[in-house]
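Thread: quick sanity check before group meeting

JM: Hey all, I'm pulling together slides for Thursday and realized we never actually wrote out the predicted structure for the chain we discussed last week. Dropping the sequence here so it's in one place. If anyone has concerns about the input, flag it before I start.
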Amino acid sequence: MEFSIRIGVIVEREGVLLLVRHKKSDWETYWVLPGGRLEPGETIPNCAERELLEETGLRGRFTRVLYVSEFLAENRHTVDVTAQVEVNPSEEAQLGSDPEEEAGSERTLQELHWVRFEELGRITLLPGFIRDRIAKDAARNWQGGEVYLGKADG
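JM (edit): ok, ran it. Output follows.
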């Protein structure tokens, strides 16, 4: 069974959330929080800051873990950790790259976009169950609520 830990990063500015549009050869395009796999020996805060920099060019400071969830499929178990990272409001995000891409292959990272929380319901944001939770918690200034969101079976 393949096991991994993925860190997704929430960056918020004045009611908008930074998302990355992905395209993989066998999938339709979809939106995700900036982020990626936790490397062996790497801490969650360091991974959140590194992934944000790689994908968006933004330097940030980890502030806290918002959610933990799990995805279970026949041969795969992924633990998703959603972290909040603060960035300098004067810095502009720029589309980065995925260092795991092979040279000459189609780019996985397609686009960066700031999305208003009330618009989240109109896009394909993965994992899907987190979309409504993000909008709800942002309206409450990220206060309260359960941290462990449970599991989604594949």
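AS: nice. The chain is about 15% helix and 40% strand. The chain has one domain: 2-153.
JM: adding both to the slides.
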